[in-house]
């Protein structure tokens, strides 16, 4: 068998396939960023006396929390889908 050492990337329907590990890694990073955004908004809300800023920060924190939850769902579904880098189903 010959090994293919090409740098050409494989595409499926115009997209580069990714592995479940790729999705999990990116989801972990994005989830942490969303949690950090939520924490920043909550801290600003506690530090200010301005009601409008408090409301905006509370809204921002809620949106960041919702984003983190959505990322968890995407990560879980990717893990359950069992796709590999070639887009072929496992099991």
The Cα radius of gyration reads 20 Å
Pattern of helices and strands = HH
Q: Count of DSSP E strands? A: 0
Q: State the low-pLDDT regions, or none.
A: none
Strand content: under 5%
N- and C-termini, Cα separation: 26 Å
Comma- or semicolon-separated keywords:
91 residues; 2 helices; mainly alpha; 65% helix; single chain
Layout of helices and strands, plus pairs?
Blueprint lengths: L19 H28 L3 H31 L10
Helix pairs in contact: 1-2
Any overview of this molecule?
With 91 residues, this protein is an all-alpha fold. The protein has a domain at 20-80. It contains 2 helices and no strands. Helix 1 runs antiparallel to helix 2 (51-81). The protein is elongated, with a radius of gyration of 20 Å.
Structure at a glance:
By secondary structure, the protein is mostly helical.
